[in-house]
Structures are given as C-alpha cells and as structure tokens.
Amino acid sequence: MTQDTPTKTKLAAAGLAADPRIAEAKRLIQEAIAEHSADLAAVAEPVPALVADYQAMFDEYSKLRGGKVYFPYLGSGIGNGPFVELADGSVKLDLISGIGVHGYGHSHPKLIDAGIDAALCDTVMQGNLQANPSIVDTSRLLVDLAKESGSGINHCFLTTSGAMANENALKLAFQRNSPANRIVAFTHCFAGRTLALAQVTDKAAYRQGLPDTIAVDYIPFFDESAPERSTEIAVNHFKYYLNRHPGKYAAIWLELIQGEGGYYPGQTEFFRQLMTAAREHGVAVIADEVQTFGRTSRPYAFQHFGVDDLVDIVTVGKITQVCATLFTDQYAPQPGLISQTFTGSNMTILAANAILQGLVDAGNFGDDGKNMAFHRHFATKLTELSNKHPGSISGPFGIGGMIAFTAFDGSSKRTNELIDRLYAAGLMSFMAGGSPSRIRFLLPLGCIEMQHIDTAAEIIDRVVGEMAAEQ
C-alpha cells in the first residue's frame, strides 16, 4: 500500500521567521547594541590615541577613491539616533543624515531588525528575474501612499539609486511621447550626475567633458517675494518653448522644493498652472521627489502642494533606502524599456517597509505632524540666532525636514568654512545653492527629538559667534 504524501501547509521560511531562537537572537543583539550605544548621547572629541591611525586610514580611503572626500568621516559602525561614533572615537550630531538617506539615524532598532531579517534571506539582492514578497510589500505601500488623495499613480518600479529612478522616469516620458526629444526643467535644478541627468541638472561644472545627450530648456523657478509675477514669467517661458518647438517636449521636470539649488519651495498655483499647460500639450509631468519624499506634511510633496491630479511620473529615494519610479497607466513602459539585474538588497527593501510604515505610524505627516513641528522648532531657533547675530544668519528656508540658513555673505568660501567649523564642533550639516550658498540640514525624522535641535542651535550659536568676532 502507498501512503498519501502529507500536504505542506507552512513555508520553511515562515518556520525560520517564527523560530524562537531567532526572536531570542534579535533580543540579545538589540540588548547588546543598546548597551554599547548608550553613552553615545552627546557630542564628544576624538580619542587622542586613535587620531593618527584614523588619519592614515582616511588618507588611504581618499587615495583609493581617487578624489577628495568632503568630510574626514569614517564611522565606527555604531550610533544612537542622531548621534554617530566615528572611528577616531569622536561623536557627531548628524543632522545631514547622509544627505537625507539615514532617516532613522544610526543603530535604530527598527533597522537592526530589518537587517537581521535581511541576513536570514537566501540571497543578498533581489532583482528583475528573482524577487521576494517584501518587494511586493514595498511597492504596494509606495503606491497606496501616492494614491491617498487622488493621484492616478498605479505602478511602482523599484531600483537601486535615485539617479536610476530618474533615468527610468525620462525613458518612460520619451517612449510615451516619441518622437519628442526635449524636456523643460527649472533653473538651478538638480536631477543627478549620469550622462543624461547631468544634462538636466542646471550646473555646467557637472557636464564638463561630457557629450550632450538631451536637449533641455530652462524656466525660472518660483519667487516667493513675487508669487504672481514669477508664476506668470515661468508659465510664459514654458508656453514660449512649447510654441517654438511644437510636439518636441516629452516632459517637464519639476523639483517641488529645490534641494541642491538652495531649499526654495514652490507654491500650489505656480505648479498647477505649469502642470496644466503641460497636460494640454501632452507633455509628461515628472515630479522629482528623491530628496523631498517623506519630508513635508504628506508622504509626497506633490500631495503637500495639492497637485495629485496632475502628476504623471514621480521618483523617490534617499530616505526610502530602495528607490523607485512611480507612474500612471498612461506611462506604463513597453517590454524591455526598464529593467535591471539588481532591484535592491533585501536590507534596503525591508528597511524601506520599516521606515515608510514607521513614519506613518509615528505621526510624522499632517499639518500638525512631527515633520512640520520639527521644522517650526528649528526655524524658531534660527530666527532667534539671526536676531542675536545680525548679519551673520538669515533665513530660515525650506519645508518640513528640509531646513537651511544663509551665513554671513552667502559666499561658498565662507559657507564651507562654517560647515567645517560646525563639523569640528560636532554638528554635521552640508551646503546647498550657489548664489547665495546655504547651510542645510536633512533631519533624521524617525529618531530626532526637539532637544537635539536645541543642541544643534547651541553649537551654531557658539561657532557663528566665534566667526563673527574674528571678522
């Protein structure tokens, strides 16, 4: 007689995930990290005995990568929220978060759990040919968030970098609107540094020695000091180009808050008029949210500005860990247009799930949510410092988790000097804009508290005061 083969009702992977030894291992790892990071709760100087070896290691790294590194930064591998330990033993207050990447700061329990779960997966990477259920979870979450208030976004294509997400956005627009071969973008915009995106980015230095790839025409960005006039000028410029090159524009490229350009936010009516003109001429509306995603009053900045009904393609990255191009049915690609061997590591995909859901659950979004509250608190502190140090600080600028100020004369030399001195004092910031240059912060929105902003303000106060006294 033959026995019936038992029916399998449980995946081996589910059994592994539920194994009590895994839960205990996670508990022990979290306990150990918490214990060793507990003292990393304030800015600290380097350990003298480690400085020489650290400098040698950093010099080697600079040589190996073939160019200067902006900060002399090599992390030790552990931190505590917005505080991070460097390999020289110093502790920095990190309020630039990898230019917006480390949205949950350093050694966050949610991301440690995600990392352990990723390590338990059978592969390091997921890709076009082989994906796991977590990729479905991340894609669904990004689409659901995009559709919250009426956008037509139905699709999400994950990828490894913001530049690749933006490349895919361009390809979707060009394919759908072929034979159009031009795009319109804002002056001072930043889209990336690939061959194509360097052409879109309005900075000639980033194109030096590179061949022309895409025909790009530029229109001026919104000017909050003259909202109606600047809207009229931008729309007239756009319509001029549409009439000068009829049928030749595949897309209008929109940064809703200019990031690298200096933290300049737009305005609803400004975007709505431009987007409406684009729609009337069959031009794709692309919102580049690689820096802005997760940082305003809503998950997407296009929702913050209330233009959900007018976006065709949206790109996200940085805080999301794994990056994505989202699009409407109309811009779905033909087979073969967008693909890649790597979609992202299991760590980035699982971390994206934890971060996205975490920001929603923690109340970061909404007019009275944490993102906007952090901005108001930091803005108040910067305004107080501006009054205390007249002529040394102006601003603040930005929205939500993006905040900046102009220091002294706004020159790049003086701004870089202040960034370096803030770094030496324990506060990490970065530069944005050109004329003027600005000090910017991209807050780690999943872990920062008001007291951390207070500490940052104290450091800015001290360093700006020292520099002003030296003039």
Low-confidence segments, given as residue ranges, are: none
- For the biggest β-sheet, the strand order reads 5-13-12-11-8-6-7
Molecular shape: globular
Structural class: alpha/beta
Mean pLDDT: 96
The CATH architecture of the largest domain is 3-Layer(aba) Sandwich
Radius of gyration: 24 Å
The CATH topology of the largest domain turns out to be: Aspartate Aminotransferase, domain 2
User: How many helices in DSSP terms?
Assistant: 15
CATH class descriptor name of the largest domain: Alpha Beta
Find the CATH superfamily of the largest domain: Type I PLP-dependent aspartate aminotransferase-like (Major domain)
General description of the model:
- The structure is a single chain.
- It is built from 15 helices and 19 strands.
- The chain has 471 residues and is of the alpha/beta class.
- It has 2 domains: 243 residues, Type I PLP-dependent aspartate aminotransferase-like (Major domain) (Aspartate Aminotransferase, domain 2), CATH 3.40.640.10; 101 residues, Aspartate Aminotransferase, domain 1 (Alpha-Beta Complex), CATH 3.90.1150.10.
- The strands form 5 sheets. Strands 5-13-12-11-8-6-7 form a 7-stranded mixed β-sheet, with helices on both faces.
- A hairpin with a 2-residue loop joins strand 15 and strand 16.
- It starts with 11 loop residues before the first helix and ends with a helix.
- The mean pLDDT is 96.
